[in-house]
Amino acid sequence: MTYRAPISDILLALNHGAGLQAAVKAGHYGDFDSDITAAVLEEAGKFAGDVLAPLNRVGDEHGIKLADNKVTTAPGWPDAYQRWAAAGWNAVSGPEVFGGQGLPLAINAACTEIWSASNVAFGLCPLLTLSAIEALDAHGSEELKQIYLQKLVSGEWTGTMQLTEPQAGSDVGALRTRAERAGDGTYRIKGTKIFITYGDHDMTDNIVHFVLARLPDAPAGTKGISLFLIPKFLVNADGSLGARNDIYPSGVEHKLGMHASPTCTMTMGDHGGAIGYLIGEENKGMQCMFTMMNQARLGVGLEGVGIADRAYQQALAFAQERKQGRAVGKKGDGLDPIIVHPDVKRMLLQMRSMTAAARSICYATAVALDIATRANDPKVRADAAARGALLTPIAKAFSTDIGNEVTYLGVQVHGGMGFIEETGAAQHYRDARITSIYEGTNGIQSIDLVTRKLAANGGASVWALLDELSSIVKQVETSNDPAFGTTGAKLRDALGSLERASKWLLERVASAPNDALAGATPYLRLFGSTLGGCMLAGEALAARSNGEAGSDPQRYVTVARFFAENIAVQAGSLEKTVTDSADAVNGADAALLG
Amino acid sequence: MTYRAPISDILLALNHGAGLQAAVKAGHYGDFDSDITAAVLEEAGKFAGDVLAPLNRVGDEHGIKLADNKVTTAPGWPDAYQRWAAAGWNAVSGPEVFGGQGLPLAINAACTEIWSASNVAFGLCPLLTLSAIEALDAHGSEELKQIYLQKLVSGEWTGTMQLTEPQAGSDVGALRTRAERAGDGTYRIKGTKIFITYGDHDMTDNIVHFVLARLPDAPAGTKGISLFLIPKFLVNADGSLGARNDIYPSGVEHKLGMHASPTCTMTMGDHGGAIGYLIGEENKGMQCMFTMMNQARLGVGLEGVGIADRAYQQALAFAQERKQGRAVGKKGDGLDPIIVHPDVKRMLLQMRSMTAAARSICYATAVALDIATRANDPKVRADAAARGALLTPIAKAFSTDIGNEVTYLGVQVHGGMGFIEETGAAQHYRDARITSIYEGTNGIQSIDLVTRKLAANGGASVWALLDELSSIVKQVETSNDPAFGTTGAKLRDALGSLERASKWLLERVASAPNDALAGATPYLRLFGSTLGGCMLAGEALAARSNGEAGSDPQRYVTVARFFAENIAVQAGSLEKTVTDSADAVNGADAALLG
Q1: A183 exposed, middle or buried (CB, 10 Å; 0-12, 13-18, 19+)?
Q2: What are the Acyl-CoA dehydrogenase/oxidase C-terminal domain coordinates in residue numbering (chains A, B) (predicted)?
Q3: pLDDT over 90, % of chain B
Q4: Which residue of B has its CA nearest to A484?
Q5: Which 8-state DSSP code applies to residue B97?
Q6: Both ends of chain B: CA-CA distance in Å?
């Protein structure tokens, strides 16, 4: 079945949950005209539904092929990519001076959700290009920018990010790829990278690789890593393509999902070494990587949201069509659609509410990253940067955990049909599985949240956020709308749990780091559930009061209530897990090895 | 990597958690000599590790082929099956009068876990045969038993269970396959069944199908269903094989997992109708099915346990080998195995403790089913039957949920490698996905738990179990072993939540059925988490006091503690979800369809 972008849900989350409307009103978005938001998203949704969604299954079934050092993508993919880029979708948030439209990241975040929902393996390619643009724009020389940036912004060429080696995954500092100074200002790179997404493909006539490597005299670890731009084809002075560079795909992985996205082993140096151009300074490659990590991680979080929404749409349609059993109390012949059964309703509401919560968190992250670069007031920018930094690991890990959980439920709603590949529910489940691993595993995100983001400024970013969330909860409490059920009480409890767990961790992050680390994963879940619950409640309040949400704003109240009573309610137990279980975790060796 | 059966863990769970030792001492197992348990399991573990485990990957990669109306299994599979049957493994708990060894179901349950862990797609075939044996033994005519039972018990022939049709899945009563009386006491069956596990294969020279069909004059719904035995090849009076019967595989499914297990569409009637023999009485087929449902559902629960244990063993080995980063506080060059990181320890402990809890629940179910047929005292038998009935949906649903969760973590521990099919972690994740769907979806199990098992006798079975669990918790509380941490408090809270949620549901199951049904899934989770937590604590106490568990019984204390502080601790929020969220679920239509 096809995909329909949930424009009303997206607009509510973007404008109210994530606070885009308020930020625009406050002047943080300069001359951005937020009236265009809906039109842009409608167009994105149309392209996604018409062009990308039908290729999702094709890509899964055909996969990609590697032959003669070239990767071929699935039928229809190169054409779709070129149409997508030609329509300007790669350039939505790109810098205007290099041909981008300069729209907010928040708009591009909603678009990223839409591409991911329609075809996550397709949408992954531009995510990498976006990171490449960010690295080049922030750290590249003027000359490199002039040669590469416009074509990357337009999407005429794509980018890759090459960090991983067999011995260097989460531990990037262990990489061994070698770069030697050629004497003319360029470098010769030799080595092997693995797990390189879209490392080669036939959708564009050039690919711009961003490769981490180590100079001969570099210090050990992360302080001795440099970032190089390595084009697949060298670029002549007039902008035309020159010689083939010495970087080739030497293998592709057979993966659980994302079959249409080539995951390449890249070999450099079989013909003397790939010609590379330094980005930033020698041995400062890790800083360049950190620059773009926020956006890349947010992008993967949005993949989680997108896949989840697609799985929900498919499960909902199935539950409305598939007839089995009767509704309670119904007599006589005939069968009812399975959506009448409370257990099926529960699964669908869980899918919908979790997806909505993750969406709101991701969009809020994008708005914070926008304000951090767009606002005039340096204090506003600094606060927003801190907010964006705090939310990024949650946006990435919580949303991708949810992508996995929602696609699991999507299979379950289909019953036996869900296990049959033809149905398509299983593809979403398979595709989602990588999102909690790549771009920093969700364990790494949790550690980042506890040791860097929570710990920054003694927790100030967290306390500021808790205050905002508390005022939303107060509005729920005073709304006197019985449709909210126990939402206010559940969210109030959750805020208390989040505050106590945050304090407990803050007290230990320096003095008893292993205790803090042991609780990192449940803490991130606690944070995401509480934050998501409050944001959904805020959106429900906004929908009730401004009538923007169409004919039935109460549906957002139901979604918020379900999330509070089923997901955010877990905050109390998660708090206890954070504070009570470190001894068991850190004393686990005998239990594990026995 | 290979599979090593965790004999110490299994024996502790079987003898102490599940209460086999006490039941034998109480005389409920007649002359069963429990000294042989360990030896039988050691042998099973050896066969599984040597023969079945190496075929697991082969089966996944080759899958099965359908050509010329015949299914061919993966290379090595027919030989392995025949060796397995020849070694007597199909006959472990079969009736002695037909050549079985008459060992307890509890022993066979442990063996089922072992087959499933080593090769779940292989182990699925005998599970179906076991159901067929049970149906035939309980309801078949003496003549049919004489012809078929010995060969089914030995495993020389396998059995299938054929319920599902395109329009009749969870709603079996909607089936349409027709049976006509042939006039000679036999029947002619025409129709199409789907999703038939091992509906055809080349591992044995005959297959005995058990097919649900409807007579022309049958009442509508489940009261008009009859059960027929339909052999693939008719059997002559001397026991030799006769003509090919009119039942053929006409299609096989392309599935997410379990690739080596053929899932067939079976067509009957292309050549005049399949010759079938009635089992039990006309129109009483559903009763025959219910007879064997307990064992079949337990079998699937054990698949969940087995896959989980296999995934755990693989993840543990990887975490001990794979080096990334340094342990906190460690200086100097070099990398540490990732098992030093608290977040990785957490994942592994979660895998281990969840698997152990599910194992204990499954084994306890088997012991109850054993006592229900073996004890002398009718009161003891009746109580055990009620216990077995109560535990069965939990054993099935909780264990298979856990199979999915543990295999998810198994992939996560592997990082990027987990997404690569070659690693093998993804196969466990794919294979596990069907277990929460087939043999009654986990939603159906939850509904069974609430509407039938909890509601039976005003909840008497639940209160009796809670009393037993409470006495275990009391022992933890009075043990004064600091290694238990907050285990006692967490389990005491969980018992309170389970009791309150049970009462809340009991009050509504008749008067407000949709409210009770809305809470069924979280209630089953609450039940499984509380029960599993108490059982692990009981096993830890037993390990400490009897020294059976080898050199370090404290490791079981750690496992029990981790489970209490991370999983059973969720009882409080699950209770609230059961009691508070029915309004949101049952008022969901506008939210879902908006």
Answers
A1: exposed
A2: 283-448
A3: 93
A4: B584
A5: G
A6: 49
Check pLDDT > 80 for residue B305.
yes
CATH fold group of domain A157-287:
Butyryl-CoA Dehydrogenase, subunit A; domain 2 (2.40.110)
> Which tokens in the block code for residue A29?
């978005």
Reduced 3-state DSSP string for B144-192: HHHHHHHHHHHCCCEEEEECCECCECCCHHHCCCEEEECCCCCEEEEEE
Determine the Cα–Cα distance for residues A63 and B439; give it in Å rounded to an integer: 33
Determine whether A165 is an active site residue.
no
Position A452 confidence tier, pLDDT thresholds 50, 70, 90: very high
Picking from B169, B345, B522, the nearest residue to A416 by CB comes out as: B169
pLDDT over threshold 70, residue A548: no
Q: Each residue of B209-245: pLDDT tens digit?
A: 999 999 999 999 999 999 999 999 999 999 999 999 9
Say what the pTM is. 0.98
What ranges do the domains of chain A cover? 7-152, 157-287, 442-581
Q: Which residue of B has its CA nearest to A349?
A: B592
**pLDDT band, residue A550 (cuts 50/70/90):** low
pLDDT > 90? residue A590: no
Choose the closest CB to A343 out of B436, B443, B558.
B443
pLDDT, mean of residues B436-444? 97
Residue of B nearest to A446 (CA): B343
User: What is the fold, at CATH topology level, of the domain defined by B158-283?
Assistant: Butyryl-CoA Dehydrogenase, subunit A; domain 2 (2.40.110)
- How confident is the model at residue A547, as a pLDDT? 64
Q: Report the half-sphere exposure of B46 (CA within 13 A, side-chain side).
A: 7
Q: What is the pLDDT of residue A291?
A: 77
**For B32-68, how does the pLDDT look when each residue is reduced to its tens digit (9 = 90+)?**
998 999 999 999 999 999 999 999 999 999 999 999 9
Facing A573 at nearest CB: one of B429, B446, B570: B570
pLDDT score recorded for residue B547: 64
Nearest to B576 by CA among B471, B517, B500: B500
User: Number of CB pairs < 8 Å for A and B?
Assistant: 286
Name the residue among A193, A37, A222, A197 with its Cα closest to residue A131. A197
What number of other Cβ atoms are within 10 A of residue B27's Cβ?
13
Q: CB distance B521–A329 less than 8 Å?
A: no
Are the CB atoms for A591 and B558 separated by under 8 Å?
A: yes
Kindly determine whether residue B426 and residue A256, on different chains, have CB atoms separated by under 8 Å: yes
User: How much is the pLDDT for B580?
Assistant: 97
* pLDDT band at B550; cut points 50, 70, 90: low
Is residue A491 within 8 A of residue A541, CB to CB? The reply is no
**CB < 8 Å to B447, chain A:** 343
Tokens of B237: 């009076």
Residue of B nearest to A8 (CA): B594
In b/e form, how buried is each residue of B403-412, taking b as 16+ CB within 10 angstroms? Answer: bbbbbbbbbb
pLDDT score of B411: 98
Cα–Cα–Cα angle for A189, A191, A196, nearest 5°? 105
Tally Cβ neighbours within 10 Å of residue B463: 13
Q: Do B594 and A552 touch (CB under 8 A)?
A: yes
| Cα–Cα distance, A443 to B263 (Å, whole number) | 37
Tell me, what's the pLDDT at A363? 98
CATH superfamily label, B7-152:
Acyl-CoA dehydrogenase/oxidase, N-terminal domain (1.10.540.10)
Q: Using alpha carbons only, how large is chain A's radius of gyration in Å?
A: 24
Q: What is the mean pLDDT of chain A?
A: 96
What does the pLDDT read at residue A339?
96
How near does any CA of chain A get to the CA of B118, in Å? 20
Catalytic residue among B165, B303, B439, B539: B439
Our CA-based measurement puts residue B151 at a distance from the nearest CA of chain A, in whole angstroms, of 30
**DSSP code, position B403:** H
